[in-house]
Amino acid sequence: MPERAELGVMNAIIFSALIGVVMMLGGIVIKSNAGIKLLAIILLFILLGSHLAEYYDLFNIHIQTHGMLAKSRFGMFFNTIIISLTLLYVLLSGDEIVKVGTYGAEYFALIFFSLCGATILSSYNNLLMLFLGVEIMTIPLFVLTSSEKKNLKSNEAGLKYFLMGSFSTGILLMGIALYYGGTGLFAIEASKAANEAQQAFRILLPLGLLFIFISLSFKVSAAPFHFWTPDVYDGAPSVFTSFMATIVKTAGFIAFIKLFELRSVDMGYSWKILLPLIIILTLLAGNITAVFQQSVKRMLAYSSIAHAGFMLFALYNPNDFGKQGIMLYTVAYSLATIGTFAVLTKMKDYTYEGYNGLAKTKPVLAATNTIFILSLAGIPLTAGFFAKYYMLASALKESTSNLWLVIVAVLFAAVSVYYYFRVIQAMYFKDGNAETTEIKPFFKTLLIIIAALIIVIGLMPSLLLDLFYA
Amino acid sequence: MPIQYYIILALVLFCIGIIGVLIRRNAIIIFMCIELMLNAANLLLVAFSKMHNAAATANNTNVGIEGQLFVFFIMVVAAAEVSIGLAIIVMMFRNVHSIDINFLNRLKN
User: Does residue A194 sit at the B interface (CB-CB below 8 Å)?
Assistant: First the structure.
């Protein structure tokens, strides 16, 4: 696929917005929950098809965007991953999504709109598009988070998410304004020869980048800007937490990498201090607090903060190793998280005790859940191991003086094994009567497929990375 | 007027917004403070747009126009955010009859 920066609207952006509208209107005609779910799955297949048609140069819509969006192999591949993951997510949890409230179709429509924002983030070339992408991605999530209208926890999570989300948007806009003052451009590439007035305001550029960095840290829940995450992930309906913690979060990282692969130079020495600081704080806040949680859902929220710490390693070497690593991490982490959350939504009790004896009552669920959890912990032979390996290796590749940071990260990964294995311990070695809602054979089959994917990628990560270069 | 005045004014507004978000307890006031932050950014963008326009040449008089365009996008997105945000606040009010965010401590066990 040739790189064509000037002709860069992706089918995925247009189609995901369109199918969102179709889904919304479909909700007027179709009343049955099964019909709505079927429509969503068909529309997702259309989206995936239109995207792949563009990937293999069969069909695409050309719109002159004046360099606002740029098509890159990286972005295209990421889009393939997130659309496939959304498809998997809807296939697994579609039944729960329609059950959250009265208007099932609207939840799917909001998910598609959010997906549209994520596809913009994978291809933006201009800070205007970064801003629009972030907003299109998060505004539907405010609604999804607070979609259980009578549940106070959900209301609270929605309000918190909304306030924190718009607060970080304010910081992002301030950063963009300062960036504009320093360079006279919104494009993320290095500017042409600046005129004298701009030279005088060059100092505003690193300041603006710092603001943007803080705002994006909010969005991907990196410490010390992570405090909203546990409450929001805990309060939101479990099905939507799964979407937020995987697709939306990784799209935030793609936005992060796209900007700072070009612009981290402009931050000069402060970048060298800021990045390790944020990584260590994130790993600390995520892993240590997760140890003390009683609820598996809340533990997973903290573990997603810890994973953000690992994904931040990609910023060290964004050009080659980091990019492969973030792809692998996106797939490994998202597959495992979608899987564990799918099992979690089937449980009646979200505490560790609720998992007691699951291996006896539902052996398939327990076995697949074990694989997901092993992958999250980064045990060899699962995808999570190579994902973590690539992340740490990218930091070492940049410079061997980062060795201390890598050692700290490995120690925190060891801490994470403790709280992950408590779930396995509860499922296999404790007596109890884990209660679940009704489980369909199709659901079990999908879980087995996801577990198999995790193992295959864990054995041969090159299968996925070869696709990236194909 | 020199550009510095605009930068200082925008930064002061922005800081008032941030402090308001951090110390006020009323959801609507917090919301207004966030809007203040967005408007500080708007003001700064317009000021910089004018500044960059001073470098315009006879061939290209459109230098700096994108800053003003950006402001319209911010306004549209802010309006979308307001509609969602107020809906969430109203929903919250129906359930607890208060918009004080000190009520929001149920999730911390």
Answer: no
